[in-house]
Specification:
The protein contains 12 helices and 17 strands. With 400 residues, it is an alpha/beta fold. The strands form 6 sheets. The protein has a 5-stranded mixed beta barrel with strand order 13-14-15-17-16. It has a 3-stranded parallel sheet with strand order 3-6-9, covered by helices on one side. A 3-stranded parallel sheet has the order 10-11-12, with helices on one face. The longest helix is centred in the C-terminal third of the chain and has 24 residues. The two termini are 44 Å apart. Bound molecules: iron/sulfur cluster (SF4). The site of iron/sulfur cluster has 9 residues, from helix 4.
């Protein structure tokens, strides 16, 4: 919360006009007490309230804002990411009640967006030049549960409100994307059995062979205290099966260490799980009590230093695993998407790298490439998180 309050302060210093919306907005009193100059504070899903506040403080001409000749807002909306990638939010809220999390109390139960609306937004983004769609939600795999996987319509075609159908439909947008190339990346996917259906689409190259699966822990007792579904054994089996179907798959996950009552043996069980699972990318948080979370009522809160020490030990193990997996890419040719240029380097990402959270591919002779360009590169060396590469010879580029 402190970080968000500081960001609001910075925005106020920058331009003096700030409207706060989202989860923090639900705590309006805290925001207003800290920053009395904010123009408005709203909770999550408050599009109308935000728009009313914008119109109130920045009145524009009373014209039809959907008119492309007079409106500054394009039909695909305004997004804050660079032009070549965009986040596609498919639902809001969550039906789980993980004890360390307060999102359901702030955002409510799962509400899936109509599949036709999601697909139209995706189509418009691709038409506007987006090369990579990052599918997000609090729980992406639960998409459609709240509407019983209702059949919606997109371009007159019936389409079930379900992750599998959505992934297929998003993959089909490649056909109309410039150069026939589009990356569809799935984030925040629970390892439910029905997720297995999506993996063959990854093996066929319809969507990116990348899954961001927040596992949080491996000890059955801790998972139960966290109120997380699935056991570590089931997760390991699932991971093995995914890799059998799609050996190229990149698996990312997040974990919490130092959860209340976590014993040394349970923590070591988690380290063993890491060794078994051989995940590619991992984020780890030392448990930190969130105001209003039920986990705060659990006994045996661990001291700060122990939580931090376990986080460091966890990262030491995972960094070795990640670095080893990354090293296997040296000498291989791969396709990358350029994010930015830095002198004679291009800074890019491969299918294994989501923006901002994963590694980067530094293309040493990519100075002529522009953000949003595709390039085939051959990997020259690997660090702990990033790769260094050179543009691939033409013949190899055609196979990448
Ligand atoms: S951690 Fe994720 S799945 Fe669990 S309650 Fe929070 S949003 Fe839902």
């Amino acid at each position: 919360m402190q970080e968000s309050l500081e960001a609001i302060g910075e925005a106020l210093d920058e331009n003096g006009k700030v409207i706060v919306t989202g989860c923090l907005g639900a705590k309006g009193d805290v925001v207003r007490e800290t920053h009395p100059k904010v123009l408005a504070v709203t909770g999550p899903h408050a599009v109308e309230e935000v728009m009313a506040a914008v119109h109130h403080h920045l009145p524009g001409p009373a014209e039809d804002t959907a008119n492309p000749f007079t409106s500054l807002v394009p039909p695909q909306g305004i997004k804050l990411t660079p032009r070549h990638y965009a986040y596609l939010k498919i639902s809001e809220g969550c039906n789980h009640r993980c004890t360390f999390c307060i999102i359901p109390s702030m955002r409510g139960d799962l509400v899936s967006r109509p599949i036709g609306e999601v697909m139209t937004e995706a189509e418009n983004l691709v038409k506007a030049g987006v090369r990579e769609l990052l599918v997000i939600a609090q729980d992406t795999s639960a998409y459609g549960v709240d509407v019983r996987y209702r059949t919606g319509f997109w371009n007159g075609r019936p389409l079930k409100t379900r992750l599998y159908e959505l992934a297929n439909a998003l993959g089909s947008l490649r056909a109309n994307a410039p150069g026939g190339e589009l990356w569809v990346r799935l984030h925040y996917v629970y390892p439910y059995p029905h997720v297995d259906e999506v993996i063959p689409r990854m093996a066929e190259g319809k969507i990116l062979p990348y899954l961001d699966v927040p596992l949080q822990h491996s000890s059955p007792r801790i998972l139960k205290l966290m109120k997380r579904p699935a056991s570590s054994e089931a997760n390991l089996e699932r991971i093995r099966a995914w890799r059998d179907i799609c050996p190229e798959i990149t698996l990312r996950s997040t974990f919490i260490v130092g959860f209340p009552g976590e014993t040394e043996a349970e923590f070591e069980e988690l380290l063993d799980f890491l060794e078994e699972a051989q995940l590619d990318r991992v984020g780890c948080f030392a448990y930190s009590p969130v105001e209003g979370a039920r986990a705060n009522e659990l006994p045996d809160m661990l001291p700060d230093e122990l939580r931090e020490e376990r986080r460091a030990r966890f990262m030491e193990v995972q960094e070795r695993i990640s670095a080893k997996r990354l090293k296997r890419k040296v000498g291989k040719t791969m396709q990358v998407l350029v994010d930015e240029r830095d002198g004679k380097f291009a800074i890019a990402r491969s299918s294994a790298d989501a923006p901002e959270i994963d590694g980067r591919v530094y293309v040493e002779d990519g100075g002529m490439l522009k953000p949003g360009d595709w390039a085939a590169v051959r990997v020259a060396r690997a660090g702990d998180h990033d790769l260094w590469a050179k543009l691939a010879p033409k013949r190899e580029a055609q196979q990448a």
